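Blinded run. Sample ID left blank on purpose so nobody reads anything into the name before looking at the predicted structure. Input follows.
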Amino acid sequence: MLSKDLKNYLESRPIKAKPIGGIGRLGKWIGRQPVLASSVTGLVLVTIIASILIYISVVETLVNSAVRLQGRGFFQEAERKYKDALSLALTWPFMKTVRVKALAGLGAMYSRTESSKELLEKALKYYNESISIDPNNYVTLNDLAHTYESRGNYAEAIKCYQRMLDVSKPPQSVLAIWNYAGLLRRLGRTEEALEFLGKHYKEVRTDPLVKGEVGSVLDSLIKSSAYKLRPITTYDQIRQILAQYGFDAEYIEDFIKSYRGTHPWFDEPDFATLHSST
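Blinded prediction complete.
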């Protein structure tokens, strides 16, 4: 082959031999200098890793600075730093946490007022973008639900609370149960709220927030019952209602004990009259 190529070259004819490429030369160099090649490769890897860590640190510093500014009420400066961080944060997996935090921070900043439709819409945009990256983020789901409530979109708020229940376990699920039941109560869906609490109270049976919400739901039910033919005026009636909605006897008696302290007028003969007059 070499002799034929040499003859063709002398006769100005095409040859088959090709010069070695860059990869080939690199391979031969590595074969001649294995120790040096290993050192150079290690140095390159260290440089790349260090550059990535510095890059992440810069973006995280911007986000943390924005959080501090936001906490001190410097919203314009915080907004600028959040957006600077997002412009630098590539959509690579290792930047997921930073992006979620920056987007949720912007959402929290814009949702601080319930009087501006435009700001609330911006908050929803950023919260939803954050959730699209981390669908199971409990805190962001809760903030998103509250923002939907502020916009009057109660169906979406309920979906968020349901999602919180799906992704959480006790005691974290307390917030979802409390907010879900509270929203149903505020919407006038009292019996639905009590049914929901009856299904989930065992997960957080000793939590004061949930127990307080059971009391608030009962208050709403009692208030509406005062204008009906059979008003709720005794603790025995409350026991029957709670049992009907799935609460066990131990929880009911513990609840009654605490409820009696704030509702001493129960079991009084004139309670129904007093209650209906208020």
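Unblinding after everyone has recorded impressions. Residues 272-278 have pLDDT under 50 and may be disordered.
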